[in-house]
Amino acid sequence: MYLGLMKNIYILVGFIFLLISCKKENGNEKIVNSIIEDPSIIQDQFGRQLILHGLNTSSSAKGEPLRNPWIAESDVEREATEYGFNVVRYLIFWDAIEPQKDQFDQAYIDRIETRVNWYTSRRMYVLLDMHQDLYSIFLGGDGAPEWACRTNGAAPLELPGGTPWWLKNIDPTVVNSWINFWQYTNHKDLQDHYILAWQKIAERFKDNPYVIGYDLMNEPWGGDLVKVFLTKEFEREQLTAFYNRLIPGLRKTDPDKYLFFEPTPAPVTFGVASDLSKIKDTRSTSKLVYAPHCYPYDTHEGNGYTESSKKQLVDWERERKKEVIKHGEIPLLTGEFGLSPTQEGFTDYLTDFNAMSDRNLWHWTYWSNDLGGWSPFNGDGTETAIAQYLLRSYPKATAGKIVSFSFDVVSKKFEMKYMSNKEINLPTEIFIPKRYYPNGYNLAVNGATNYTQSYDEIKQVLKITVSENATVTIEITAK
User: Fold this and answer.
1) Per-residue DSSP letters for 316-340?
2) CA nearest 456: which of 205, 80, 109?
3) pLDDT score of 34 more than 80
4) Regarding beta strands 441-446 and 471-478, do their DSSP bridges make them parallel or antiparallel, or are they unpaired?
5) What does the pLDDT read at residue 149?
6) Other CB atoms within 10 A of residue 154 CB
7) Which of helix, strand or coil describes residue 364?
8) Which of 1, 15, 220, 350: CA 20 to 30 A from 131?
9) pLDDT greater than 70 at residue 20
10) Which residues partner with 278 through β-bridges?
11) How far apart are CA 123 and CA 182, in angstroms?
12) What's residue 58's pLDDT?
């Protein structure tokens, strides 16, 4: 009750400040000079609340010699218009940024920028993800450059065929490399150069408002299983200390973008609580986003959406809600989730996951857009059964603050409630895919006495402009 009251007071104060803020013209758009930043949501440069839905691009880049994803610009266009995605989690790699110590590959960063511009020119947001698996491609995964692999001379462990890839985390070469990376006192240069690599990326992208932010490290792993699972020292001390070095370092180059941080993948991804200490921003108003991954064990391993997986998803929601509060009531983006469309119960899993995300106003990026496998697309580009559960009506950008929204893929009913802010000149934008409304849709708007609406046929976006501060409800049903 108390937290809810304080949120309402915060929102009211924010709106009052917005009312007295100055404005300037920028083409046909009025930009509020003094946007009141709300650390509990993700906002665009105009102050609108964003809900981010999109895909990861792409697993194929992990082993590609130039570290490029498989996509062409036409694939980006399809994601933006046909599916209404407004974000991409774009994989980048330390070994490609700094292949030799103190030598930074500007040609690689140029290639990133070319592809990033495919998205941002369409006003899609880009989350740059510094990706790793098993520490480095030189140890059988991807991520760190060879010069940063400090294995203490250990011999690699040969695992039998068919062993899950992630079990290679017990390989002594991987274990030792991780242990050395986290031991800042003895191997200070490793984390310092990781921060430097991020600064090189931020220098290039800090001025592009559609590069929404940086995912600081994909699935950070402790190496030492005792510290990861028994004492929990890894998350509580080592990973926390790493973020406390990286965030201030990155803020020196880019003071304003959102910084997305992850807990350790296991066992958090299965619904267990994280032991990460509270992460703080150096900005006066935090722009941090919690970015855990969600993979119930059985669904991840191909056994379907079992009763155990259902319980883990319930646990995952409960624990993530606690952690969002712990870190300062910040937004949450599920950086990865997914499963094969051949698995039993995959429709129930995606339905449950989407309902969970909607009711908590959480964001997501599905793993991944690589053709085939878990993808929404087959090898020939046609849809898999996954696609229809990622294609959803949702509020892409809201001129105000969302109270709630939901979409039922069976009934095709979309509902939304939000507090409008007339000082935000751009409209509220809701993705309404024509596939679900072939004969059009019925629109009901309540709570606003003065509003206009239009529909962009190409982008499949409903735009609603409310010229008053009000509590607005929207209902959309199929004709």
Assistant:
1) HHHHHHHHHHHTTS--BEE--B---
2) 80
3) no
4) antiparallel
5) 98
6) 13
7) strand
8) 350
9) no
10) none
11) 37
12) 97
Report pLDDT digits (tens) over 341-352: 999 999 999 999
Tokens for 63? 């082993």
State yes or no: pLDDT of 6 exceeds 50: no
Residues ≥6 apart with Cβ < 8 Å to 43: 35, 37, 49, 50
Q: Which residues contact 16 (CB under 8 A, 6 or more apart)?
A: none
CB 295 within 8 A of CB 269: yes
pTM: 0.93
The runs of H, that is alpha helices, within 61-208 are 73-81, 94-97, 106-120, 172-182, 188-205
Q: What string of DSSP letters covers 247-274?
A: HHHHHHH-SSSEEEE---STTGGGTPPP
Q: Kindly list the distances between the CA atom of residue 281 and the CA atoms of 199, 259, 288, in Å, as whole numbers in the listed order.
A: 16, 9, 7
pLDDT for 133 equals: 98
- Chain centroid to CA 345: 25
Residue 8 has pLDDT above 80, yes or no: no
Round to whole Å and give the CA distance between 120 and 125.
6
Given this model, what pLDDT does residue 163 score?
Answer: 83
Q: What is the dihedral of CA 40, 287, 277, 356, to 10 degrees?
A: 40
Per-residue pLDDT tens over the stretch 89-116: 999 999 999 999 999 999 999 999 999 9
Q: How many CA atoms lie within 13 A of 395 on its CB side?
A: 32
Which pLDDT belongs to residue 15? 33
**What is d(CA 67, CA 110) in angstroms, rounded to the nearest whole number?**
12
Phi, psi for residue 332 in degrees, rounded to 5: -130, 135
Segment 402-412 mean pLDDT: 96
Query: What is the average per-residue pLDDT within 397-409?
Result: 97
- Kindly report the three-state secondary structure assignment for every residue of 282-321: CCCCCCEEECCCECCHHHHCCCCCCHHHHHHHHHHHHHHH
Burial tier of 29 (Cβ tally within 10 Å: 0-12, 13-18, 19+): exposed
Angle between helices 188-205 and 172-182 (to 10 degrees): 80
Measured distance CA(299)–CA(436) in Å, rounded = 28
pLDDT of 108: 98
User: For the domain bounded by 41-391, which CATH number is listed?
Assistant: 3.20.20.80
Q: Find the length of the chain.
A: 479
